[in-house]
Amino acid sequence: MAHDDTPAMTSNRPYLLRAIYDWITDNNLTPYILVDAAREGVRVPPQVIKNGQVVLNLAMRAVANLDLGNEWISFQARFSGVSQSILIPVAAVLALYAQENGQGMMFPAEEGDGGDVPPPPTDGGEPPGGAEGGADGDRPKRGAPHLRVVK
After folding, report:
1. d(Cα 129, Cα 126) in Å, to the nearest integer?
2. Beta strands in the chain (DSSP E)
3. Residue 97 CA, distance from chain mean position
4. What pLDDT was estimated at residue 7?
5. What residues pair up with 84 in beta bridges, in sequence order?
6. What is the four-CA torsion angle of 35, 40, 41, 47, rounded to 10 degrees?
């Protein structure tokens, strides 16, 4: 069978994200994602973006209605006391790791995905905005993540 006859496979990124998320939460740790906020389709409050990236706490106590889909990650979270709808294309996720020990997985930037962002899910949610800056419990309390290779 020639390579031309092999059907194209979908990205493994959403499956890996769900597996790593489950592994982190099953070990009673706090899952954080690092997102390329400059990617098309990323909807996060602008005040949480630092150096073109944003780190978000995905712990069940920090978010509501979490959906780790094949093309989009969506959830509700509070920023400065205001509930916001967060929408992230799976291709914009750069890493998923445990806040407590840095264990997790980094993902390569997908060069070819910039122009073909899938349409966002139609959940009726409003885009984030309007919240002013300020510290809250949804953001990490330390600097850049320290990731280790998981074998």
Report:
1. 9
2. 31-36, 53-57, 63-68, 72-79, 82-89, 93-98, 104-106
3. 11
4. 85
5. 77
6. 60
What is the mean pLDDT, run by run of 10 residues, along the chain of 151 residues?
Answer: 74 95 97 95 94 95 95 94 94 96 90 53 45 39 56 64
The predicted structure's pLDDT at residue 141: 44
Whole-angstrom distance, CA of residue 88 vs CA of residue 80: 20
Residue type, 117: V
CA separation, residue 91 to residues 38, 50, 76, 137 (Å): 12, 19, 19, 26
In sequence order, the 6+-apart residues with CB closer than 8 A to the CB of 9 are none
Cα Rg for the chain, rounded, in angstroms?
16
In 3D, which of 14, 11, 9 has the Cα closest to residue 90?
A: 14
At 151 the pLDDT is 64
Token pair in block for residue 115: 């122009």
CA distance 37 to 54: 6
Single pTM value for the model: 0.71
Check residue 139 and give its pLDDT: 41
